[in-house]
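Much of our argument rests on the idea that a fold can be written as discrete symbols. Part of our work consisted of pairing the sequence of a single chain with a tokenised description of its backbone. The amino acid sequence and the backbone structure tokens for this protein are reproduced below.
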Amino acid sequence: MSIWTPERQALALASCNKWHGTKHRNRMCQVGVGIDCIQFVKEILADAGIIDPVKLSAYDVNDGTHNVSQRLATAISFALDVETVSIQAPAFGDLAIFRTGTRSGHVGFCTGAAIWHSLAGQCVTKSQFNLWRHEIETLYRIKSIGLKNSPQIAVKL
């Protein structure tokens, strides 16, 4: 059974639309000013009631630009109760971990055929999932409400 009730889906989409057009800025989380990809996903999940609002501890801004996306996947699977699912069947609420360069890690929030993300050098946007399908390394489905472990520890893994 999916954790994504119609009410939670509506709240998540409202959150995506609230952030739409906000510029990408590392470590920021202010509507209309700046947000990065992990903060964006965290805000969607909090706004939808999947996790409690939480502040992420400081992290090295180079983590997302110079380390392979596996580190990001490890941090997410540490903090949330997730399972890896097929890239061929994205569902609402799935988290896509993908490359945006040769060694950069990035996360986006899936809404079925679309993916919302905050891409470095751009802004929060909605893209077609198929445009990124070949760059996606891991697709996670969240299995339960709440955090499994502290995200403050997860960002340091």
In short: The beta strands are 29-30, 34-35, 80-84, 95-99, 105-110, 114-118, 124-128, 136-147. The longest helix spans residues 6-19. The chain has a mean pLDDT of 87. Helices lie at 6-19, 37-47, 63-66, 69-79, 129-132, 151-154.
